[in-house]
Amino acid sequence: MSSGFEVIRAGVQSTVQDIGHSNTAHWGVPQAGAADLLSFALANLLLGNSPEAACIEMTLGCVQLRFLTETDFALTGADCAAQLDEKPLLPYSRQRAQAGQTLKLEAPVRGMRSYLALLGGVDVPQVLGSRSTLLSARLGGIAGRALRAGDVLLAKSKTPNQRLSVAIAAPQWRSQLRVMRGPQWRNLSAEAQRFFQNNHWQVSGQSDRMGVKLLGSMLEMAIPIEMASQAVFAGTIQLPPNGLPILLLADVQTTGGYPIVGQVIQADLWLAGQCRANDKIQFKMVDANEAVLALRAQQTWLSQIQRIVCSSI
Hints:
The protein is of the alpha+beta class.
């Protein structure tokens, strides 16, 4: 029998996610995929999975699963004080469960999303080249919906023998996100530009996988602008008419008509995916060179972890 688990309690919103769709924007299909791609990558890395292997993304914990067979799994992202049959587990770790054992996740103290990987990845059909769940379109995953109690999910690989448990250090969490100027940045008033960079923004409870709505002082345009829709991506910061920015996430639409004042750099997108209601965040403006150096440093760190983890597999 293939390894896998049965959902006992599904939590607020648990979905199957991978790296998302590619080359579908011209059809109006969002990329989707994991909101925190760094934690997603680390979950697969811990098991030696392909980088594209599908995982379970769990929002605000409160999940309970029962393993069907002997199973290797990995947990990353927000620390939900995970327990395997009431035995505490280290965050960012690879573990082995026996048939019938129960994995329980509490609500996280910090962060928004946790990731559960199974050996070989979660085995659901590909739709448009991805196993990701796009809730707004009812596409992918399990019938395009969030997990429910009673769902059974299987892994693509069986568990091999002689595999050790291992844990890694979590990436450094911080409230400051590095941002590059957007195409309409210069349309902001000088005061709005200063406020955007020098003040904290509070995450609204109305945020979701499409975008993080931010609360604070309204930003004003010094140069009024009417514009046609333009391409938007995860990390794009739009400014709607109410003057309160929206930081777009994984399920963002492919185009938008609001001015774009910034773009979170790729190395910090994972932090955006972990923003939760009432968090305070701050933006730091950087240039393209700094963005590239930050991404290279992150990739180097991932490569170092991969070498260490591979030696234990």
